[in-house]
Amino acid sequence: MLTNYMNQLNKFSFFALFFFLLNSQIVFGQEKTDNLTIPISKKWFESFSIRGYQQVRYNRLFETNDKLRCEQCDRSWGADGGFFIRRMRVILFGQINKRVYFYIQPDFASSASTTSLHFGQLRDAYFDIGLDDKNEFRFRIGQSKIAYGFENMQSSQNRLALDRNDALNSAVSNERDLGVFFYYAPSEVRKLFSELVSSGLKGSGDYGVFGFGLYNGQTANKPELNNEPHAFTRIAYPFKIGNQIIEPALQAYSGKFVVAKDQLTTGVKTNADLNYLDQRAAASFVLYPKPFGIMAEYNVGRGPEFNKETDSIELRDLHGGYVTFSYYQKIGNQLLIPFSRVQYYQGGKKHEKDARSYDVKELEIGTEWQPNKNFELVVMYTFSNRRFEDFALQNNRQIGQLMRIQAQLNF
Predict the structure, then answer these.
(1) What's the structural domain count of the chain?
(2) In whole angstroms, what is the distance from residue 108 CA to residue 391 CA?
(3) Within this chain, do residues 9 and 90 fall inside the same structural domain, yes or no?
(4) Is residue 11 pLDDT above 60, yes or no?
(5) Which is nearest to 378 in space by CA: 328, 320, 336?
(6) What dihedral do alpha carbons 316, 169, 279, 321 form, nearest 10°?
(7) Which residues pair with 248 in a beta bridge?
(8) Which one, out of 43, 336, 353, 379, has a CA that is 20 to 30 A from the CA of 112?
(9) How far apart are CA 290 and CA 245, in angstroms?
């Protein structure tokens, strides 16, 4: 009798559960009761994404001068350079809360020196805190790119030329530093910033239409060496004219840079405290390739630079910029982007040995080919005229040509 009673109870429970589910309309991912929707909590691994890319280069084809180098650009330039992993990055990112976004990017192809390669090093490690429901106003805290120069902010995964231009990239080595930043952009502009990257139009990402912030000023992964942070500000606004998209911008920063002692040659003269004024301002103009594109930037400023006439590091003027022309062409499911860039820079590079003095004139002609979204091949021919001098290497001007090739995997 007890067994019969339990069987009847189980049948009743089954039908009761069936009618409850039918009435409450439970669907995967949410429970709906009348007009109330209750989200089911995401699992921890559903709160972020993983992506990355790898770049492998060879720079020695048709090389006419193996003394022509560019420490800032690519350490496999010149004598003894061979196949070279330029970048190997894995990126973790995600909107883990309605107002909290995080981004972590290590690089496993960092070069500790010209003889020690492929070390893991932190590039980005920051989180964004939204101040409103649309995250139009937000603070960024951590190590991130400094919003100075369109090409500096542009990811190496998206950029056409294999290396960033000397003129603006000499402002911030590795384009990053540690600090606190504020950005503002209307939601429709934030959406456009995202589309300019995802559509393959070589956007720079979302650094707001207005931004300012404070950062250490010694560049990424370097300790602060004084108690005076750098400050920057930037204004930019992309807008549409018919089918075209244009993005002008103005940006500037100011601070004091400390020339590190391990970057000084014995005998070079310096300021007593090694502190040098470090100030710049730049203008940017981008016409996105639809199909013809132009990207142009120019900056002026003052900073530390080696002077061979006095064997000393002095505060000196600097100036320079570049212009890149491109053409966006789809051939079936493939993408071909021929491009050309001319650049000029005269000034110091504060993060190199003795704040090395530079005079750069360079022409690059190349093509990026994307047979699919996961693979890119860039072939580029460079005509270069570079003077780069420090205390140990004086009267050094190198002129030459070379073909450069890069294969890139996107995942």
Answers:
(1) 2
(2) 32
(3) no
(4) no
(5) 336
(6) 70
(7) 285
(8) 379
(9) 8
**Percent of the chain scored above 90 by pLDDT?**
84
Same domain, 102 and 245: yes
Confidence of residue 18 (pLDDT cuts 50, 70, 90): very low
Q: Look up residue 204 and give its DSSP letter.
A: -
Assess whether 252 and 328 both reside in one domain: yes
87, 97, 152, 162, 171 from 146: Cα distances, Å: 20, 24, 8, 20, 10
Rounded CA separation 131/139 (Å)? 8
Same domain, 133 and 181: yes
Helices (H) and strands (E) in the chain, counts: 4, 21
The pLDDT-based confidence of 34 (bands split at 50, 70, 90) is very low
- The pLDDT tens digits for 198-215 are 999 999 999 999 999 999
Position 139: which residue type?
F
Asked if residue 88 lies in contact with residue 54, where contact means CB atoms within 8 angstroms, the answer is yes
Mark out the alpha helices in 90-186 (DSSP H runs). 150-153, 166-169
- Contact yes or no for 77/61 (Cβ under 8 A): no
Do residue 33 and residue 71 come from a single domain?
Answer: no
CA angle 292, 293, 298 (to 5 degrees): 155
d(CA 142, CA 154): 19
pLDDT tens, position by position, 230-286: 999 999 999 999 999 999 999 999 999 999 999 999 999 999 999 999 999 999 999
Runs of H (alpha helix) within 180-271: 187-198
Beta bridge partners of 277: 256
Domain coverage including residue 145: 41-410
pTM: 0.88
Domain co-membership, 1 together with 115: no
Is the pLDDT confidence value at 88 over 70?
yes
- CA-based angle 247:248:250, to the nearest 5? 140
- 168 residue type, one letter: L
**Do residues 98 and 65 touch, judged by C-beta distance below 8 A?**
no
Say yes or no: 31 and 172 in one domain. no
Give residue-wise pLDDT tens across range 344-386.
999 999 999 999 999 999 999 999 999 999 999 999 999 999 9
CA distances for 186 relative to 131, 237, 332, angstroms: 13, 10, 35
d(C-alpha 365, C-alpha 363), whole Å: 7
